[in-house]
Design a protein that fits this description.
The protein is mainly beta. The protein folds into two domains: 110 residues, Immunoglobulin-like (Sandwich); 280 residues, YVTN repeat-like/Quinoprotein amine dehydrogenase (Methylamine Dehydrogenase, Chain H). Helix content is 0%, strand content 51%. The strands form nine sheets. The protein has a five-stranded mixed beta sheet, with no helix packed on it. Strands 3-29-28-27 form a four-stranded antiparallel beta sheet, with no helix packed on it. The protein has a four-stranded antiparallel beta sheet with strand order 7-8-9-10, with no helix packed on it.
């Protein structure tokens, strides 16, 4: 098997056998989508999915609510859920929330639901929790808040004709996005520290459908491939995405953002700013995406369910040689030795080392001196991601630990 260009080498040694592995640095961490069947045939359509307390929960038309521990086996809703359209479901403060008509539904496990009636003539569309407060939003600028999940107070701003379609909580803030049918479907953002007093931003020139928070950043998506980002809910900046398809949903997990929408479009981003297409080979629309149980799950037309797997490095050849380069860092993981040649990219200063699971969970981090240092750690056998940072440069690579 030949060596593919633009690859770096890593030496993995176990006892007397040394393996020289060549890998593509861009291949690791990519998202590969696989079909995982369909949601149960109840209701006419599913519009939203969320994860919490070890379960995925999906909601849709006719009051449909289904749950699953693994995104594969699903079971249906309780019979007493009202037959209303449940556009959005979220998880926060240990509970799931969904809303429709003048009803707000809460559940600790996605199976047993409690319904509260809110005194409003408008239609509730989305809800979220944060900072000890629950917030539900809907048509004509409707905003209701509750601190106990039972009593709801009207916090709607005056003279707001636009309909709120999404709300999230992060960094001590609530951020909601609306769509104004009276002004060419343009959107605006509202933000609040407590859910009581709200501030409005200037209108966006695009229609925005959902907003989420992750890694210190608010990210909203919408028509024509629009992605807007903000660190504080007040100042927003448009990002390039490379697609003109409508983006309907966005989620954060496993150290990345994922956006999904029309025509099977799925984009990924490590930071919310740079976006890459990772769409599966399908043309049907995706309605919602979430992250949980070390995977992303997207749902779409016909109740289709797609889940991600992480592509690992490809070993192209083996060799008995061991690197003796001057700029080399040695790692001893419970008996497995890994030598990593730094090359000319890393110059001066200490080296920050991180070891992560395939799912992105931190195993440990440490710092080594710039000389040929050695790090020892008792690590269980398996595949990991090793990250190195020095002098403003960063590198990641997969390593296999074996006994």
């Amino acid at each position: 098997m030949g060596i593919i260009p633009h690859k770096r080498s890593v030496i993995v040694s176990t006892g007397l056998l040394s393996l020289l592995c060549f890998f593509n640095s861009d291949s690791f961490g990519q998202l590969k989508w696989n079909s995982c069947g369909t949601l149960p045939e109840v209701g006419e359509a599913y519009f939203s999915i969320a994860y919490g307390n070890g379960r995925f929960v999906a909601t849709g038309q006719l009051g449909t609510i289904v749950a699953s521990p693994d995104s594969i086996d699903w079971f249906g809703r309780a019979a007493d859920i009202p037959d209303i359209l449940l556009w959005s479901v979220s998880f926060g403060n240990g509970i799931f929330l969904t809303a429709g008509s003048n009803k707000i539904l809460t559940s600790p496990d996605g199976v047993s639901w409690t319904s509260q009636t809110v005194e409003t003539g408008d239609y509730l569309i989305a809800a979220t929790c944060g900072n000890g407060t629950s917030v539900a939003v809907g048509t004509r600028g409707t905003i209701f808040t509750s601190t106990n999940g039972k009593e709801w107070a009207d916090r709607s701003p005056e003279n707001e004709p636009a309909d709120f379609y999404s709300i999230c909580n992060g960094n001590g803030l609530f951020v909601a996005v609306n769509i104004d049918a009276t002004d060419e479907q343009k959107s605006s953002f509202y933000f609040s520290t407590d859910g009581l007093l709200w501030s409005k931003t200037e209108k966006c020139t695009s229609t925005l459908w959902q907003v989420t928070f992750g890694n210190g950043l608010f990210v909203a998506v919408g028509d024509s491939g629009t992605v807007m980002t903000s660190p504080d809910g007040a100042r927003w900046r448009r990002q390039l995405t490379g697609t003109s398809n409508r983006l309907i949903s966005v989620a954060f997990g496993n150290n990345r953002f994922v956006a999904a929408g029309d025509g099977g479009t799925i984009l990924r981003s490590p930071d919310g700013y740079a976006w890459t297409d990772c769409s599966p080979k399908v043309k049907s629309d995706f309605y919602s995406v979430t992250c949980g149980n070390d995977r992303f799950v997207a749902i779409g037309e016909g109740g289709a369910v797609y889940i991600t797997s992480v592509e690992t490095a490809i070993v192209d050849r083996m060799s008995g040689s061991v690197s003796s380069a001057i700029h080399t860092v040695k790692f001893n993981f419970g008996g497995t030795m890994v030598r990593f040649p730094l090359g000319n990219r890393f110059t001066g200063g200490d080296i920050d080392i991180g070891l992560f699971s395939i799912a992105g969970k931190r195993v440990f981090t440490t710092r080594l001196k710039r000389t040929e240092g050695e790090m020892k750690a008792p690590i269980a056998p398996g595949m990991y991601v090793l990250t190195l940072a020095c002098g403003g440069k960063r590198m990641s690579m997969p390593v296999t630990v074996a006994r």
